[in-house]
């Protein structure tokens, strides 16, 4: 009922789209979101095994295109950590980055179709334990994948550690940990400047110092960000990658497109739900319109060489905390990302990959922190087991199979709960006749057959039994047959049987 009420609530129209009414709030908020997004766009592209430029493209499209079509005033879209594993495995499965881009375009089309099919409530059908397990699994994979980058491991040269990379990553980690301390967050300057950005700036400056002071520790070009530097407008345009449309014959492209569409849609819908809760004006985002906006964004991103994108909670919460009021703030974020890659590519190419690895290690830990495991355990086995099964299955298969495994475990507990809630039994005192009352539940399905058969078989000879179906809306024919067959058994066992509002069973229908 709560979900139905929420889904059917009439969405409120955001503040006039790109109004300049709140420019004094939206401009600084957009700058803050840009500062948060820049290292994350580069870092998520790194974690995805994709060109770093593709992360900036996705961030730009998320800020400009998605914001233009979305009905959310506050959510910010871009490349998401939750999709990095899908991208990493997907590129390998379809054979090339260009074929992967085709899957992103198709995923966008699927999302648009879902929007028109009014599938905006899709996220509510996934248990929170499975969603949290999926995100924790992504966090664990991210940590495992980024540790080699953080320590400077090079397989080709059999170099297991690089002193400079380790120093830079450790200092970057220390900065971000200190930045997140409650006492530090209270300081105004630290509150508005993201720790990840500070870590990237300090790491870049430190590598510049090592080049002169300790060259053997300095990071070479292969351990730095590598974005294409455009010499002209024509050269800049040529840097965008087009999808490989010949990959239409590859069925793996369609599997990947479906996976991206479902996961991206769920993450986006969960993010806008969280954004609406955080919105001081309590505006409700139209979920179906959001699916269409995300679909358009993914189509555009895939067509020009960008990663798949979603509405992202990290950037959205940064926007809200910075005082963003309308869609102008994510639009400003997107414009600044575009400007940075056009005019600052040579400067961005000085950023050590070890810095970005440190950023991703922190993101990974936040997705899979110890307190999450503790809280899920405290919720009981029906929450903890789907959570754990999802994590383990994702590690040894892929994201979609992991979610399916978690859903199966969740369904087991749902069936178990239904099996236990098929009836309520009460027996009056002996002096009052000792009557046994069996009141059937609101819905009695074939799942409940075993429990009802067992209970009826345990009724003592000569007892007085009343089976009450007055509060039942649905009785499965299998259960109905069992109850009517029991009438014959009751006569043999001298059981006095009363039936209230139990339909007549004819073998095919109930009357």
Give a short overview.
The chain is mostly helical and 511 residues long. The chain has helices spanning 2-8, 23-48, 52-69, 84-94, 97-116, 128-151, 163-179, 182-185, 188-192, 195-213, 233-237, 251-278, 287-303, 313-321, 328-343, 345-348, 353-367, 370-378, 381-396, 399-420, 449-457, 477-492; strands spanning 77-79, 309-311, 423-427, 436-440, 443-444, 464-468, 474-475, 496-500.
Write structural notes for this entry.
The chain is elongated. Helices cover 62% and strands 6% of the residues. Strand 3 (423-427) and strand 4 (436-440) form a beta hairpin. The model is unreliable at 1-9 (pLDDT under 50). With 511 residues, it is mostly helical. It folds into 3 domains: 2-13 and 22-368, no CATH class; 372-420; 423-500, Transcription Regulator spoIIAA. The strands form 3 sheets. The protein has a 4-stranded mixed β-sheet, with helices on one face. Strands 1-2 form a two-stranded antiparallel ribbon. The protein has helices spanning 2-8, 23-48, 52-69, 84-94, 97-116, 128-151, 163-179, 182-185, 188-192, 195-213, 233-237, 251-278, 287-303, 313-321, 328-343, 345-348, 353-367, 370-378, 381-396, 399-420, 449-457, 477-492; strands at 77-79, 309-311, 423-427, 436-440, 443-444, 464-468, 474-475, 496-500.
